[in-house]
Amino acid sequence: MDYLEINRANWNARVPVHVGSDFYDVEGFRKGHDPLRPFELAEVGEVAGRRLAHLQCHFGLDTLAWARRGAEVTGLDFSEAAVEEARAIAADCGIPATFVTADVYDAARALGGRTYDIVYTGVGALVWLPDLARWAATVASLLAPGGFLYLAEFHPVADVLDDETGTTVTYDYFARGPHVWEDVHSYTGSGELDHPTSVQFQHGLGEVVSAVAAAGLRLDFLHEHDHTLFPRFATLVADGSAYRLPEGAPRMPLMYSLRATKPYK
């Protein structure tokens, strides 16, 4: 199974659906809406004048949001359609940015050996990667000494629970995959995909942290969050732009964020 080409076709098909969706609200972004989450802004900190690489950037709204905050940004994605759209949005908004088409594992070569102060990634990115050790080594090669990886992701605990209530353990936490999915609809809830097949890989929290440590990065923090970005379970309630379990219900981690620094030698 060529997971990469299957997923590339799937994500190329998602681009026009996502660009036209309320979920991404591209028109709102053009008018100045900031898609970055408050906890990300607090944890990443000041980015003005810093070189930032966004891996698996899709069509670049988060990438360009960091550019609006003063970062010198480069976005990388394996979808040609996504990169083309990212460049178009950047030009339309007058935001300086570089976008490159490449598989994330080939990022060091595709980015010409350049290094960055910040490598930013996440929000549904790791599930598409079969080898986290290789991913973390790639991240480390992109970082300048003293630079850091910032990862914000959906918590793997949420993936083992039933889809309706989120209260019953239904799926195997240690079933890494590959998992083949057939779904003509994307998570944006609008439009149908011409290429509905995708291949995904589950990664536990221990696997993520171990891969980052093995790549020689020093863990600065691992934060778990009791909210997520979409109604993952029918029981979740909206709280501004986030979704949480109802007040009084036992809380569980729905997202996590991690920062790890490349030490000076």
From TrEMBL:
Q: Which Pfam families match?
A: Methyltransf_12
* Ranges of residues in domain Methyltransferase type: 55-149
Q: Does the keyword Cytoplasm apply?
A: no
* Highest taxon above the source species: Bacteria
Mind telling me which SUPFAM superfamilies this protein's record contains? S-adenosyl-L-methionine-dependent methyltransferases (SSF53335)
One GO term under biological process is: methylation
CDD domains recorded: AdoMet_MTases
Q: Which GO terms describe its molecular function?
A: 2-polyprenyl-6-hydroxyphenol methylase activity; 3-demethylubiquinol 3-O-methyltransferase activity
Q: Which InterPro entries does this chain map to? A: Methyltransf_12, SAM-dependent_MTases_sf
Q: Which UniProt keywords apply?
A: Methyltransferase, Transferase
Give the EC number.
Answer: 2.1.1.222, 2.1.1.64
What name does this protein carry? Class I SAM-dependent methyltransferase
What is the species listed in this Swiss-Prot or TrEMBL entry? Nonomuraea spiralis
Q: What is the lineage of its organism?
A: Bacteria, Bacillati, Actinomycetota, Actinomycetes, Streptosporangiales
